[in-house]
Task: structure prediction
Amino acid sequence: MSNLEEIQLAICSSLPGLPDEMLKKLLHGLTAIGVETKADLHFVNEEDLVEYLRPIQCRKLLNAWKNKEQAGCSTPQQSSHQDLSDISSPGSESSSNSTPSRSSACSSASCVWAETFKVPWEVMPSGIRLAIANKKRPSPADRRQLVRILVGNMQKHEVNPSKAQCQIIVQNIVKQYPESFADVLADGTKIGCGYASLLLQVKTRVEHVNRNNTLTRRRKERLQSSCRTISQSSRRPADRYGCVSWQPEELPAGENDETLEEKRKQMVLLHSTEGMSGATRGELHKLMEVTYYRQRRDINASPAPPLSELKNSWPYLFSLKGIFLHFNLLTDISLLQKIMESIEGKGKRILRFFQEKPTNNEVRAVLSKYQEGNSLVLCILQLLMAHFKERTESLLIEADVAATAADIEKDGLPDSPALIIQGESMTPSRWMMSVEREVVLGPCSEAFVEGLAALFAIYYNLNLAYQGEAACTLEFIQRGIVGINPETGSKVAAGKRDKKMHGMNPHVCTLLRKLMDFEWLAI
Result:
């Protein structure tokens, strides 16, 4: 291992979640001040790091570097890339011998065996070796057999491998053979960290074979409740999840608080005279764009402002154009275009997947109602909720075609965002959207795909966490359709998320893996 790789591993052992860009800048900065070897890190002080890291990150690194017990795991020399003929030979170097990347770096001595672990490719099914040779995705059956053999060999080193150990091995496999094992959709969309589905399969297998062995169970020390208490007024990581401009740091060029307030009042006046039809005016787009700084400041205020206050201050924030423009500035994604392209490219494949492999009776019930010419978007949304066994009413509320917003509010609406569909369940003629038991958009006669896009956008625009009753469906839309795939974190409400993986729900991960297999094997 080179000196630079040793230094990088020393950093990643203490800060495994450090973004690539920050890591590169830090390495460059350390080199600039004369750090040539890992031993030189003991002479680094906090002043040398503040330009590249936050204060707590600086202290974590310094504490780790100056503590001999946390000098880090040594890693073997990174193996060179092999041909498939080398893989199938018993004496060949395994893909797992490559240096683990920073996200899987482990500072505990227990990870040494995982870093030097050799995948027994020579005993893997012929389908696995053939898939690797042809850079194809193996069949689900061959992949399950790989997991069984892999875990069996891992247990020769440790009966109950930890998640960190599993991650090191899995990440190295995916790094060596991304075409065969990476979590990538047919259109090139990388899902999460890229290896979550294989890690889930391996860890699930480990838990399965140890289900009756109480002596091998791993237990984590429980935190004191006082440590978990979070102020109601504080902002959660989920608020920023997937955003690129959650709160701009600087005012727009040539603007100040007074000019932005004047533009806000201008939009309020326009709404008072023309209502939501004012959203079609050409100048509104520019006004909404230039006041984005103020919109985010108001939305991100702590405690969060009431919905009524936001509606009064920013009425066009709840128009279709305003919703999509705000989401675009927030995430740098043209949401409506992205969803329409994804549905066009993936929608029929998702439908065909469920038609060929209906996963439960609820899915079959949805399929029985769908006919050619019905809303494909609405059908897919209902299929996802049926597959995950989530209550359809948590996102979709059926209402009479003649019902007004006041009528629907009177009947009761959920706190979380929901779409009210009016007309036939598979061919709605109109739709509305509600937030916090109030209809905030509609009735709209636009295509239902616009309703789905508006519903998804409002979670991000207003810093809303996915409700537990529809968390899997919303996360699937986020990752598989919209393409927002942070490696860590989650937008699921605290206390309702599954923590088996780095934020990604294992049920979502499993369905995405099955769809990837279905897509790739159909090509």
